[in-house]
Amino acid sequence: MAGERIVVVEDEQPIRRGVCDALRASGYHPLEADDGAIGLQRALEDSVHLVLLDLLLPKLDGLEVLTRLRSRRPQLPVIMLTARGSEEDRVRGLKMGADDYVVKPFSARELLARVEAVMRRVPPPKVKATHQAKLGEGIIDFDRREVLWPGQAPRLLSEMEAGLLELLLRNRDRAVSREELLETLWGVDANGLETRTVDMHIARLRAKLRSPSENGPEAIITVRAQGYMVGKEWIWQGALQNERASDAVD
């Protein structure tokens, strides 16, 4: 157990607070929601590990929340919090994919035991991969289109600059010609065409990727009569993942 995030969806404040206090005392990180709509929104966050879900909720009832969760996060563990005499709802919930249930009133000890049991048998959620590359101490965040160097303000890349860099990284073992860049990124048939468009974009991209250190790594190399390629010090997460996948197949 290492601070797993658990969403507690319960509209009765005393019960919700009591559950959260018990979870917090046991090292979990509870997130509160007092209606089904908020509960669903929080449960869909990638960092959430488990949901404690009351069935009688305002805005969206618990079974509807469960249905939507199962369609979008089928592996997320869900424990229902149910009232006495609601056997039919418990059976429906289990058939719809709930992992367990606890009948109110319940003790903190019983609830924690069920949480631990479910967490043991359900694999943790996969962490969403970040679309990033590294150049020395610099980080390029493609999702935000930002170049980040320690102690420096973020440098923003245009959509074309980000696309240009990603294309070079995908082909990092060879030089990419100006003609190929024009045809791939600009959709221009470069046969016999004289243009400085690629060179100007490369120059701007180099400036934004330049290390603040005097002896920083070279981002983009010009290969005479062939085109451009990235320097040797790049680490690209997407490329590394592809290499690991191919190694596993071999």
Brief digest:
The protein has 250 residues and is of the alpha/beta class. The chain has 9 helices and 12 strands. Helices cover 41% and strands 20% of the residues.
Which structural class is indicated by helix and strand composition? alpha/beta
Number of helices: 9
Question: Using DSSP, what is the number of strands?
Answer: 12
Quickly name the level 1 CATH class of the largest domain: Mainly Alpha
The strands making up the biggest β-sheet line up spatially as 2-1-3-4-5
Q: Unreliable segments (pLDDT under 50, ≥5 consecutive)?
A: 125-129, 239-250
Share of helix, binned: 40-55%
CATH superfamily of the largest domain: Winged helix-like DNA-binding domain superfamily/Winged helix DNA-binding domain
Note the overall shape. elongated
Proportion in β-strands: 15-25%
CATH third-tier fold name of the largest domain: Arc Repressor Mutant, subunit A
Q: How far is it from the N-terminal to the C-terminal residue, by CA?
A: 35 Å
Radius of gyration: 26 Å
Largest β sheet strand count, sense and barrel closure: 5 strands, parallel
In N-to-C order, the SSE pattern is EHEHEHEHEHEEEEHHHEEEH
- The CATH architecture category of the largest domain equals Orthogonal Bundle
Number of domains: 2
What's the helix and strand layout?
Elements: E1 5-9, H1 13-25, E2 29-33, H2 36-43, E3 48-54, H3 62-72, E4 78-82, H4 87-95, E5 100-103, H5 108-121, E6 132-135, E7 138-141, E8 146-148, E9 155-156, H6 159-170, H7 178-186, H8 197-209, E10 220-223, E11 227-230, E12 234-236, H9 237-249
Parallel strand pairs: 1-2, 1-3, 3-4, 4-5
Antiparallel strand pairs: 6-7, 6-12, 7-8, 8-9, 10-11
